Amino acid sequence: MLKKISIPTSSKLHIVGHRVCEGCQSKVPIIENEKDGEIVTVSDCLTCDTKELEIEYGAVADRMEDREHEIFYEKHSVIPEDLEDASFDNYKPEHPTQKDAYKKATWYAENFMELEFTSLLLKGPYGVGKSHLAKAISDAVKAKGHTVIYIDVPQLLRKIRNTFGSDETDEAIYKAIEKADLVVFDDLGAERVKLDDSGDSWAGEVLFEMFSARTNKEKIITTNCGADELRRKYGNMGGRIVSRMMKGTKVVPVEGRDMRIPEF
Questions:
Q1: Residue 170, SS3?
Q2: How many whole angstroms from its chain centre is CA 84?
Q3: Closest CA to 163 of 104, 206, 106
Q4: 241: nearest Cα among 188, 191, 197, 184
Q5: Integer Cα distance of 83 and 98 in angstroms
Q6: 98 vs 16, which has greater pLDDT?
Q7: What is the rounded CA–CA span in Å between residue 147 and residue 142?
């Protein structure tokens, strides 16, 4: 709790002497103040009080700085509820490609920002653990103190549409994506895209802006779509989106049965 400094409010103030502060050896006035018929003596050392405030404010600032990456993550990430607890520890690879993807994902997280390439693209059908590994990577990187954004692409596009006319603009989201040390683009291609008569789409323009902001920067992408499918899906912007997202990106195929559906 911050220390409250006593400041006499009466006009009947008298300096009756001085003392040497035990803490900083400063010369401190001794003031008598008449209040409600009583004499009150005040001799606060403003030098020491100021130093205490600086230390306390500094400690608060340090705590905020220590949590900056977590605050950034909490503010900007869009994470599906079923991935909240996903981690490397509870990933259960069965198929050989799942085991290989697990090794590459853990290796990427351990060597983050020290690699010759910047990004991974986990490609495969639904339910094989791509998003699980992406979330595990993001948590491991965040634990090292890096700023991370985890984005479920379909949810993000809905979020951007909902920010029109509000305080949080799409420009603010783009800036956050550009600033982060790592951005995860989960489930790319699962969003609904409507092309107009000229072959353009709002979703394609938004994704192009985001991937342009992350060119040559660290990112994780998960998708069940191939490059040609993404090019067709985003129309006129499709080729440019794929070109931006694949620069410095290694493809990791993931196969296997749908881990979300029990056998019956």
A1: helix
A2: 15
A3: 206
A4: 188
A5: 17
A6: 98
A7: 6
